[in-house]
Each structure stands twice: as structure tokens, then as C-alpha cells.
Amino acid sequence: MRTWTKRPLAVGAVVAAVVGLTACNGDGADPPTTTTSGSSTSSATSSTTTTTSPSTTTAPTIDPASLPPEATQKTEAGAQAFAKFYWEQVGDSLASGDVRLLESLASPACEECTAVPRAIKKRATRGEHTDRSPIQVALVAVREGGADRVVVNVAGKELAVRYVNEADEVVETTKPGVFTWATSVAWDKTTWRVVGFEAA
């Protein structure tokens, strides 16, 4: 089972702001090139590795009709499509304040996955949301493959957005950036689910 190194997550400025994480953010340039090679070298700096603990919480049911058809297939291509859809849904949820679909796409045992919709809901209770989706996925590529678990690099641009309230007043603005997330998805009986992500 893959272990995840606790380090700052490359979640981009907007997601970092709502979750309170340290962002590894770019300056709006083209997203970095990703590779399907699994022979990447990790940093030698000391850190604590953890595994996701089992959870007794049942994951919400995913309506297959809500997914792109290719994201429902138990293949590496299906895993890539699912990971891409997950991050696009993060952006859509930031713009709408509705996290119901987003919550169903990830394991409830994934700490970072649950932090994102929780923070979006906190904003939504104040009537705040972004004026458009900030997430623009440009590239997906398999980083590590497997029958039931695949790590997908998802790279793209984070667009500059404005947070507006119910009166359509601007309460915050963000800067553009780039991101690459190593997103781990696992097959859960009939569907993929995101079970972790970290800086790629």
C-alpha cells in the first residue's frame, strides 16, 4: 500500500486558501510536464510517512450518471478520467458552493479530501463562492499503475478568481498559478474514489 509523505500540498492558491494549506504555487506559466515513468526520486529531507487509517464512515453513493462515461471504467484510462473529473469538480464546487457530488468522489478516510469540501461549505454558509471555476486541467498522466489503485498526475492552471458574497460584492481576489497533484484513486467495488493526493 502506498504511503503518503506529510509535506505542503501543491493545491494552488484558491484551494490552499479555503483549506488553510501551504501552497506550492506558480506564477501563471504553463503547467509542468508530467511523465508516466514511475522511477521518480523522492527528497532526502526527513519527514514522517503515514498511511490512511481505515474509516467506519460509509462513503456516499456515486451516481454513475454524474460521471463521464470513461471515468466509470476499471482501467488506467478510467482512473485518469476520474482523477481529472475530481479536480474539475473541486473547481465547480468552489464556484457553486455545492459539494454533494465532490464529497461522494473521495474516501471519507482521506483527510485532505474531506478538508476541501468542508472548507467550501464553511465559505458557502457565509454566502461566499468564487465567480467561476478556478481549476483548468491541462494534462493527466499515470504515475504509478495497478489493478485496483492508480496514482495519476493531474496538472493544469489555476485561474485568478474573485470571491463574491450574496450581494455580489467582492470579498477576496486570488492570483493565477499552476498545479500538479499526484492523485491516488482506488477501485471501490463499482467505482473509483480518490484516496489521497500530494504535491507531484
UniProtKB/TrEMBL annotation:
Designated name of the protein: DUF6318 domain-containing protein
Coiled-coil intervals, chain numbering: none
Transcription regulation found in the keyword field: no
Signal peptide: 1-23
Sequence ranges of Low complexity compositional bias: 31-61
PROSITE patterns for this protein: PROKAR_LIPOPROTEIN (PS51257)
Keywords linked to the UniProt accession: Signal
Region (Disordered): 24-74
Domain DUF6318: 66-195
